[in-house]
Amino acid sequence: MTRRRPSGATLLLLGGLVVALVGIASVAWASGWAPAFTGLGSAAVPSTPGGAGGPSPSAALVPASPLASPSPLAPGPSPSAASPSPGVPSAPTSAAGFRPSQTVVPMGFPLRATATYRYGDGFRAPRVGRPYWYNQIRGVTSGGRLLRAHDGQDLQVKVGTPVLATFDGVIVDPATIWRPWQPAIYGTVAVVQSSEPTSLGYRSISAHLSRLAVAIGDVVQRGRVIGWTGRTGNAAGTVPHLHFELRAPFMILFHYAGIARRLDVFDPRPSLLAADPNR
Questions:
Q1: Hey, what long-range contacts does 256-260 have (CB within 8 A, 24 or more apart)?
Q2: Overall pTM surpassing 0.85 (yes/no)
Q3: In the prediction, which pLDDT does 83 show?
Q4: Which of 54, 110, 124, 247 has minimal CB crowding within 10 Å?
């Protein structure tokens, strides 16, 4: 039996069909559904730049989600959270070897260089009234009553003088730290808790202010105006002054008149003198 050779028309028809199938397969692969075809082995899958498990060609065309990039509102690492620069002195980080009358805490001065001021009563000067657990004492009476002492350094300055933040940090509520708080003594206050690596956790108290420029929770930088001097609290009738305290983020052991007390307050004068722009 003789075989009939396919005609030219038949060959052209078959060739066109093969070209069409190849074109369909190429489009299918580019659109990402080629693996749906049966009979394709793993060797038929081209490798990607990432190797096995890398992104498919179709995945590379999908735009990245906006959530994949850092939000501009998300807080980044604070510069103050970094380690202190080499050679920059730091305040003590524990009570071990702490020298209450000699320690210098790196900080800014609470008044502008253009202000007119002088140093008044200092640390542990006699004061009247009952000392609370967070107050210094200067002795004890024969009847066992503790005698209250000054917890800070007074800077004599006219009423209405701007008071500056001594640290980068946050404004905190003294009534949540030292209980019971004594607004009748301190008056209007601004308390800055330091976020600086050389004084982390230290707090400064600026008292007897006439008014505030900040609120609890505000983040402040050194030199920002936080209030204005006044005569609030028990400063009425006294020489106008800013009462300034420094408090450590740990308790320091004191012995006065045979009485042992653990306090966070210490003499701020050395730190003030070191920061004083007019000395």
A1: 256/136, 256/137, 256/138, 256/139, 257/137, 257/138, 257/139, 257/140, 258/140, 259/137, 259/140, 259/146
A2: no
A3: 55
A4: 54
